[in-house]
Automatic annotation (TrEMBL):
Protein's name in the database: D-glycerate dehydrogenase
UniProt keywords, alphabetically: Oxidoreductase
Domain of life: Bacteria
PROSITE patterns documented for this protein: D_2_HYDROXYACID_DH_3
Keyword Secreted attributed: no
Domain D-isomer specific 2-hydroxyacid dehydrogenase NAD-binding, first and last residues per copy: 109-289
Residues annotated as signal peptide: none
Sequence similarity: Belongs to the D-isomer specific 2-hydroxyacid dehydrogenase family.
Residue intervals of the D-isomer specific 2-hydroxyacid dehydrogenase catalytic domain: 5-321
Keyword flag Oxidoreductase: yes
Length: 332
């Protein structure tokens, strides 16, 4: 009978997905990631793995787990997994798209608003007992979000959900993506395609919604910040390494751009010390994109369903390495 290892604490309710299948699940009741060698040792005899984005699944890990047939990442991004190596090893990789789209778009918008209107600064000011009277030139003077131009770098499901929210704020929405939408979809969504440089030059807010790939790593570097408006703000809820964090800190300090709202970091959970020093118009969050109870529960359930499906001879709903699809389906 198949056995599944869960590398870190998840929402227990998700394990209901295995009921009646005879699959045994061993849940590691700890919310810290295991060091690589310990993860290899712990998972080495299992057929299925449910893991988190803080677990690195590379060729060495796969070689140590010869029985493994499926790795389900409880995240939409899967840059922590060497997918070509998994495909070579015949291991199905799945992620959790869709169920976290709206929660992540909500958070991106919250971060944009918090940065533009300096909400954490206002909160800290009040709690410090410094709010003595209302004044015209308020300390936390912000910039308008309504009517501003938003540039979306990446227009997948989350980028589109952010575009829909931006319409409610009467924003002009530009996007840049490797794939341009058909004109009709652009019209319906109310977005206009822009080359990367144009997106940078015209946007008041640039929000990152692309996956981390070789082609997107450090796409936001010193040259990109130099091309942005000095009043512009960068919002990142995607993956930290898409932004060169040291270059961002320098750009903020030198006034090349005006602010940043970041939910992800280049060497997460570490944050560039220079960024931590910047308190005005810089909002830093601990990777909260999908952090609502409902969303995290659905992500865990989806990951559990994927593992169950592969181990019972079905194609999972969210297979990443689709090359393996035919091999996953049990014969008659
Ligand atoms: C979170 O960052 C995710 O990829 O789901």
């Amino acid at each position: 009978m198949s056995r599944v290892f869960v590398s870190q604490e998840i929402v227990d309710e998700a394990l209901e997905e295995f009921e009646g299948t005879g699959i045994t699940v061993d849940l590691r009741r700890d919310h810290t990631p295991l060091p690589a060698a310990e993860l290899r040792a712990a998972a080495s005899t299992y057929d299925g793995l449910i893991c988190l984005l803080t677990d690195r699944i590379d060729a060495e890990f796969l070689a140590a787990c010869p029985r493994l047939r499926v790795v389900a990442n409880v995240a939409v991004g899967y840059d922590n997994i060497d997918v070509p190596a998994a495909t070579r090893a015949g291991v199905a990789v799945t992620n959790t798209p869709g169920v976290l789209t709206d929660a992540t778009a909500d958070l991106a918008f919250a971060l944009l608003l918090a940065t533009a209107r300096r909400i954490p600064e206002g909160d800290a000011f009040l709690r410090a007992g410094r709010y003595t009277h209302w004044r015209v030139n308020q300390e936390q003077m912000g910039v308008d979000v309504h009517g501003a131009t938003l540039g979306l770098f990446g227009l997948g499901q989350i980028g589109r959900a952010v575009a829909r929210r931006a319409r409610g704020f009467d924003m002009t929405v530009l996007y840049h993506d490797v794939q341009r939408l058909p004109a009709e979809d652009e019209r319906e969504l109310g977005v206009t395609y822009a080359e990367f440089d144009e997106l940078l030059a015209r946007s008041d807010f640039v929000s990152v919604h692309a996956p981390l790939l070789d082609s997107t790593r450090h796409r936001f570097d010193a040259a990109a910040f130099a091309a942005m408006k000095p009043t512009a703000m960068l919002i990142n809820t995607a993956r930290g390494p898409i932004v060169d964090e040291a270059a961002l800190a320098a750009a903020l300090r030198e006034g090349m751009i005006a602010g940043a709202g970041l939910d992800v970091f280049e060497r997460e959970p570490e944050v560039d010390a220079l960024l931590l020093e910047l308190r005005e118009r810089v909002v830093l969050l601990p990777h909260l994109g999908s952090a609502t109870g409902t969303t995290r529960r659905e992500m865990c359930r989806m990951a559990a369903r994927s593992v169950r499906d592969v181990l019972t001879g079905k194609r999972p709903e969210n297979l990443v390495n689709t090359e393996l699809a035919d091999r996953l389906v049990a014969g008659p």
